[in-house]
């Protein structure tokens, strides 16, 4: 069982989005319904595992990362999906993931 913390869209107090690069979004199925409990992985530009969180009851996830190229990969019983993102600096960068079998 993974010990990754549950996530939500509300940023913690004290997060300075002028200095932090935040990757967030929602995992959903092909019909657009949120996928609760999906494991969302952050992979670096070479495909190496960096971090993992569990999507909230509303499918939300969040990572703090550095600018660069990342892959967000969602794994769930509903299916899997991924999206490649390239935040170029600090701020909130929203990227949703659709999963399918």
Structural notes for this entry:
The chain has no helices and eight strands. With 101 residues, it is mostly beta strands. A hairpin with a 4-residue loop joins strand 5 and strand 6 (80-85). It is globular, with a radius of gyration of 13 Å. The model has no long low-confidence stretch (mean pLDDT 89).
Query: What is the CATH topology descriptor?
Result: Immunoglobulin-like
Q: What shape does the CA trace take?
A: globular
CATH superfamily, by name, is Carboxypeptidase-like, regulatory domain
Q: What order do the SSEs take from the amino end to the carboxyl end, as H and E?
A: EEEEEEEE
Uncertain residue ranges? none
Q: Please compute the radius of gyration using only Cα atoms.
A: 13 Å
Second-tier CATH architecture: Sandwich
Question: What fraction of the residues are assigned to beta strands by DSSP?
Answer: 35-45%
Largest sheet: 4 strands, mixed
Structural class: mainly beta
Name the helicity range: under 10%
CATH class: Mainly Beta
Number of self-contained structural domains: 1
Number of helix segments? 0
| Overall pLDDT confidence | 89
State the end-to-end distance. 22 Å
**Beta-strand segment tally:** 8
Organism: Gordonia pseudamarae
InterPro entries: CarboxyPept-like_regulatory, DUF1416
Protein name: DUF1416 domain-containing protein
Keywords: Isopeptide bond, Ubl conjugation
């Amino acid at each position: 069982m993974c010990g990754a913390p549950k996530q939500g869209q509300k940023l913690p107090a004290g997060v300075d989005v002028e200095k932090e690069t935040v990757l967030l979004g929602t995992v959903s199925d092909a019909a657009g319904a949120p996928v609760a409990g999906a494991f969302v992985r952050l992979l670096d530009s070479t495909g190496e595992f960096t971090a993992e969180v569990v999507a909230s009851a509303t499918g939300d996830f969040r990572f703090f990362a550095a600018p660069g190229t990342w892959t967000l990969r969602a794994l769930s019983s509903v299916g899997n999906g991924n999206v490649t993102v390239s935040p170029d600096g600090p701020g909130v960068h929203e990227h949703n993931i659709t999963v399918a079998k």
